């Protein structure tokens, strides 16, 4: 999509580079921004710059954080005996929105996928193993119901089963092949409550 001005074209291309945003939607965003007060546009752009400059990765669970430790890991009211393993930050947001889980998380940063060149060493698996101690009572796998998700869960299961703690997986109320962030809150919440023993899954 080309317009009569290079500046407008550049802005459209930047918006269109975002996931799921086509050029028509990008044009709509750009025209909307043009109608805003300069202070509102400055506020918008500054928030994006601060997002990139100031946001950190939690040193414990690899969630996003304003400081070295995320709010979930720092919350003394959370159940510190339970760790829920997720693929990415979006999954934490999805699970938290259900209000059904009060434990801690561990973000892998992806799942094992030889086709995409992602091996176990590319994931935050070793830092998970370091976190397991005498207080850890349960590990919950909340990974996507795909071959890659199942492979990742099984790999980690083989690494941690020697610790003798409870290892479970969210119930299969989630359709095979679906990612967690595409699952409605009610189904996801029930899947967490009705989690099942991983070894018998």
Characterization of this structure:
This protein has helices spanning 6-16, 23-35, 38-54, 71-74, 89-96, 126-131, 147-160, 185-193; strands spanning 56-57, 64-65, 79-86, 103-107, 138-141, 166-169, 196-197. It is of the alpha/beta class. The protein has 2 domains: 6-54, RecR Domain 1 (Helicase, Ruva Protein, domain 3, Orthogonal Bundle), CATH 1.10.8.420; 64-197, Dna Topoisomerase Vi A Subunit, Chain: A, domain 2. The strands form 2 sheets. A 5-stranded mixed sheet has the order 4-3-5-6-7. Helix 5 (89-96) links the parallel strand 3 and strand 4 (103-107). The protein is elongated, with a radius of gyration of 20 Å. The protein starts with 5 loop residues before the first helix and ends with a strand. The model has no long low-confidence stretch (mean pLDDT 89).
């Amino acid at each position: 999509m080309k317009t009569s001005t290079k500046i407008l074209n550049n802005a459209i291309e930047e918006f269109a580079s975002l996931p799921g945003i086509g050029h028509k939607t990008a044009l709509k965003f750009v025209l909307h921004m043009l109608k805003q007060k300069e202070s509102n546009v400055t506020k918008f752009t500054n928030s994006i710059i601060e997002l990139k400059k100031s946001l950190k990765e939690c040193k414990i669970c690899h969630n996003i954080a304003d400081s070295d430790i995320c709010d979930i890991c720092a919350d003394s009211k959370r159940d510190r005996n339970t760790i829920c393993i997720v693929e990415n930050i979006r999954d934490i947001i999805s699970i938290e929105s259900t209000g059904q889980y009060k434990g801690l998380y561990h973000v892998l940063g992806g799942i094992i996928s030889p086709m995409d060149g992602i091996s176990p060493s590319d994931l935050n698996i070793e830092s998970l193993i370091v976190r397991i101690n005498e207080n850890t009572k349960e590990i919950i796998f909340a990974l996507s119901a795909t071959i890659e998700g199942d492979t990742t869960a099984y790999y980690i299961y083989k690494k941690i089963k020697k610790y003798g703690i409870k290892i479970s997986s969210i119930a299969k109320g989630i359709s095979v092949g679906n990612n967690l962030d595409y699952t409605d809150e009610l189904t996801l919440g029930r899947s967490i409550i009705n989690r099942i023993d991983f070894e018998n899954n």
